[in-house]
């Protein structure tokens, strides 16, 4: 009887340890970068998507526009003014939008941070991301689509 008790205890230990390991959430990050050069500007876009159990739960997007042409640089103040009119900072309903400017390097950067799990469909719709909360696209599907659009992607 003592052997049976030890065997049962061993089996229960294995069962609980195996059970704990299988319920862990799998987290992965997909980072995609795209660069475009035109009209005296270099535009770099970096999108980072966090997936938990292959479902998007957080996304950040950063777009940096760098003026590379000296003639366009002469109009830097006007460029910033136009960009500022179109890009108002906010932090509401799990979505944050910020702007940073580097006058020395003629760089204008916008950053969008979306906590997909803790935002609402209404807030997403206002920002042009309707359906993102219920999107069932996997990490691999997003990677494939971004690469077809010309991005270079890496899974971390």
What does this structure look like?
By secondary structure, the chain is of the alpha+beta class. The chain has a single domain (25-155), classed as YehR-like fold (2-Layer Sandwich). The chain has five helices and seven strands, in the order H-E-E-E-H-H-E-E-E-H-H-E. A seven-stranded antiparallel sheet has the order 4-5-6-3-2-1-7. It is globular. Mean pLDDT is 86; it is low at 1-22.
Number of domains: 1
Which series of helices and strands comes N to C?
HEEEHHEEEHHE
Per CATH, what is the topology?
A: YehR-like fold
The CATH architecture assignment turns out to be 2-Layer Sandwich
The CATH class name reads Alpha Beta
Shape: globular
Helix content: 25-40%
Low-confidence stretches: 1-22
Mean of all residue-level pLDDT scores? 86
Structural class: alpha+beta
Summarize the structure.
The protein has 156 residues and is an alpha+beta fold. It has five helices and seven strands; from the N terminus they run αβββααβββααβ. The chain is globular and about 55 Å long.
Strands, helices and their partners?
Blueprint lengths: L1 H21 L4 E12 L2 E12 L2 E13 L2 H4 L2 H11 L3 E3 L2 E8 L4 E8 L6 H6 L12 H10 L3 E4 L1
Antiparallel strand pairs: 1-2, 1-7, 2-3, 3-6, 4-5, 5-6
Essential attributes:
156 residues, alpha+beta, YehR-like fold, seven-stranded antiparallel sheet, 5 helices, 33% helix, 38% strand, globular
């Amino acid at each position: 009887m003592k052997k049976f008790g030890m065997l049962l205890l061993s089996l229960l230990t294995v069962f609980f340890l195996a059970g704990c390991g299988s319920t862990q959430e799998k987290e992965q990050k997909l980072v995609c970068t795209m660069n475009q050069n035109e009209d005296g500007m270099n535009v770099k876009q970096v999108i980072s998507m966090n997936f938990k159990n292959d479902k998007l739960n957080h996304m950040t997007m950063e777009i940096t526009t760098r003026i590379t042409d000296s003639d366009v640089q002469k109009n830097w103040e006007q460029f910033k003014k136009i960009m500022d009119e179109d890009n108002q900072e906010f932090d509401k309903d799990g979505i944050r939008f910020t702007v940073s400017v580097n006058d020395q390097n003629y760089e204008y950067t916008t950053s969008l941070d979306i906590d997909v799990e803790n935002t609402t469909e209404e807030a997403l719709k206002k920002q042009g991301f309707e359906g993102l909360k219920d999107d069932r696209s996997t990490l691999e599907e997003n990677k494939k689509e971004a690469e077809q659009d010309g991005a270079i992607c890496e899974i971390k």
